[in-house]
Design brief:
By secondary structure, this protein is mainly alpha-helical. The protein has 5 helices and 2 strands. A two-stranded antiparallel ribbon has the order 1-2. α4 packs antiparallel against α5. The longest helix is centred in the C-terminal third of the chain and has 51 residues.
């Protein structure tokens, strides 16, 4: 498995080294292995997790608390997926799928809440825009 230094991870993720360390400190990013000299050694999984965090932050506008919840659910889903793949019995596989469905539903609910807030904000801005346009029309005639 490839190991990456924090400079490489920062470059690939578009985050600063300080932000990466901070995410690790608050538990949003799981701690990497360390070399004998104490240098952080990240994996591709770390980079993928940082990509999820950036998307949750930038695309969805999640706060750090929301990101922590989002990432925790994602980690549980990854664990469930591993158990599912190792399970041979149909009943156990069904149970794993049901548990993963609950987690996906939770994440979709978080996204829906954010979308609803964005929709309300957009409606408010459209209302203001209409009032401004009406004012311009009245003043122009």
């Amino acid at each position: 498995m490839d190991k990456f230094k924090i400079d490489d991870v920062a470059k690939e993720s578009g985050l600063t080294k300080r932000t990466i360390r901070y995410y690790e400190e608050i538990g949003v990013l799981f701690p990497p292995e360390r070399s004998e000299g104490g240098m952080r050694l990240y994996t591709r999984k770390h980079i993928e997790r940082l990509s999820q965090i950036v998307n949750a932050r930038d695309v969805l506008g999640f706060s750090l608390m929301e990101i922590q919840d989002f990432v925790a659910i994602r980690e549980k889903m990854d664990e469930q997926k591993e158990v599912y793949l190792k399970t041979g019995e149909a009943e156990q596989k069904l149970q794993q799928l049901k548990e993963m469905k609950i987690m996906v539903d939770q994440q979709l609910d978080m996204v829906d809440q954010k979308l609803n807030k964005m929709t309300e904000f957009r409606k408010e801005m459209e209302h203001i825009q209409k009032r401004i346009n009406d004012g311009i029309t009245k003043m122009s005639t």
